Amino acid sequence: MVPLSWYLILAAALFCIGVFGALARRNAVGILMGIELMLNAVNINLVAFWRHIGPDQMTGQLFAIFVITVAAAEAAVGLALIIAIYRQRNTVNVEEIDMMKG
Amino acid sequence: MFLFVVFALIALAAAVGVITSRKPVYSALFLLLNFATLAALYIMVEAQFLAAVQIIVYAGAVIVLFLFVVMLIGGGELDDIGGRNKKFLARLTWPRGIALVLGLGLLVAVGYGLLSGQLMTATNDAAAFGQGSVQAIAAVLYTDYALPFELASILLLVGMIGAVALAQPPKKD
Questions:
Q1: Is A27 helix (H, G, I), strand (E, B) or coil?
Q2: Domain-embedded: residue B44
Q3: Which of B37, B69, B81, B147 could covalently link to B11 via disulfide, CB atoms 3.0 to 4.6 Å apart?
């Protein structure tokens, strides 16, 4: 069986790539994709821990399923927000979306 | 072991492709490749139900949603998809080249895993899938985790209503 640490390294690398994507992309859709990458990295961790530490307890897998549920809801609402903003401002560049003067 | 390394490298390369592609359409397609590779990894740890959910929910629903929105808001200029007047190699820009290599890599790795039996735990008995099977998950999900399950359904309902409400065209008055 593949060692646990390999899964953790893969998940950490994917998470870091996702963080970079979420922070560095200017396209709002790209930011959402970075967030999806991060959620998937978390799922790898959950499943790997389930497999290596307690295969008889289903907690890891069930958490992964709930994470997928939340990710699906998040993607739907996030993309709806992007469409609403695009209607209003005609752009999805997050640097131009500054109605709240952040 | 070898298969894990191949899948991990494909997943990482696809993730890098997601954040480096200039065009959102390429990003979404690289994300699809990443999700498919992760599903293969889930099968390797014998979480078959999760792998199916990964493909259905992520690779199916979420990616289609992403692509739909990207197409709707015009994700940058789509360079010549048809490109009839160009040779094949001239149309092979770097995202397509990388995607071709990674996609073929995934196909070869999955084929190798299936043929060598590393991706197959299966017999014809559903219970033989063990702790990753629908049976095992459902037995816990509908008993010990019934409350989170109901909460998740409420979350999905709220998300659905929110998405419909947000995406409404503004009222003209």
A1: strand
A2: yes
A3: B37
pLDDT digit string, tens, across residues A31-83: 999 999 999 999 999 999 998 887 788 888 999 999 999 999 999 999 999 98
Determine phi and psi for A93, rounding to 5 degrees: -75, 120
The residue segments making up the domain with residue A25 are 4-89
Q: What proportions of chain A, in percent to the nearest 5, are helix, strand and coil?
A: 75, 0, 25
Q: Measure B88 CA to nearest chain A CA, in Å.
A: 29
This prediction has a pTM of 0.84
CA distances to A12, B13, B24, B110, B125 from A31, in Å = 18, 18, 10, 30, 43
**Count of structural domains, chain B:** 1
Angle (CA) B35-B113-A63 rounded to 5° is: 40
Structural domain includes residue B99: no
Any domain includes B95: no
**Best interface-test mutation with B: which of A2, A42, A59, A90 has the largest number of B CBs within 10 A?**
A2
Which CATH number goes with the domain that contains B61? Answer: 1.20.120.1200
Q: ipTM value of the model?
A: 0.91
Phi, psi of A27 (to 5 degrees): -80, 130
In a domain, B18, yes or no: yes
Of A47, A77, A79, the CB nearest to B47: A47
Is residue A96, in this structure, part of any structural domain at all? no
